[in-house]
Write a structure and sequence with these properties.
Layout (H helix, E strand, L loop, with lengths): L13 E8 L10 E6 L3 E3 L3 E8 L9 E9 L2 E6 L4 H10 L6 E9 L5 E16 L12 E7 L2 E5 L9
Antiparallel strand pairs: 1-2, 1-7, 3-6, 4-5, 6-9, 7-8, 8-9, 8-10
Length: about 160
């Protein structure tokens, strides 16, 4: 029997959810939902592993390669200006009220509205907020940005569906 062909995933249907987690490494408590929403763009879902070259005596045909430290890119979320929840998240850290760490889940949906895959940012922290440039002569939609650094990127299982209001 021939294997069923799988169509490539289209990446224009996704949702981002923020929940606050404890700074404790072994926190078993439930996470507090901060907000969730649709974004126009999400960039920076990437991890880079630095290879370590080890030169061994007697090994004349190239150095042995070993896994080194993994680093993660800054994730940038962009969306049309609406509610001020992104500013509230950033401002809570910037003003020193507290330094919440966030669990950020980015879920990509297929054409049927079923979750196809999800990425999780572990212990994310907002480091930059950008409001749209204001221009009286322009007619563009205002875009706000939130930049997040994080301590881990993982692919997770999800079984949610996209609710369109």
């Amino acid at each position: 029997m021939a294997a069923k062909a799988v169509a490539p995933l289209q990446v224009f249907r996704f949702r981002v959810e923020f929940s606050q987690v404890s700074l404790a490494e072994d926190d078993n408590g439930s996470a507090m939902n901060v907000c969730r929403g649709a974004f126009a763009e999400c960039t920076g879902l990437e991890a880079t592993m630095e290879a370590k070259a080890i030169k061994e005596g007697g090994r004349n045909y190239g150095a042995a390669q070993r896994a080194g430290q993994t680093t993660f890119a800054t994730v940038i979320l962009k969306r049309g200006i609406g509610q001020s929840d992104l500013w509230r998240i950033f401002n809570s850290v910037a003003t020193g009220m507290f330094a919440p760490r966030l669990k950020v889940t980015i879920t990509v949906f297929d054409l049927d509205g079923t979750a196809a895959l999800a990425w999780q940012l572990d212990r994310a922290m907002p480091v930059k907020y950008k409001f749209a440039d204001l221009n009286a002569r322009g007619n563009e939609i205002g875009i706000e940005e939130l930049h997040l650094v994080h301590e881990g990127l993982s692919s997770i299982q999800t079984n949610t569906t996209l609710q369109i209001a």
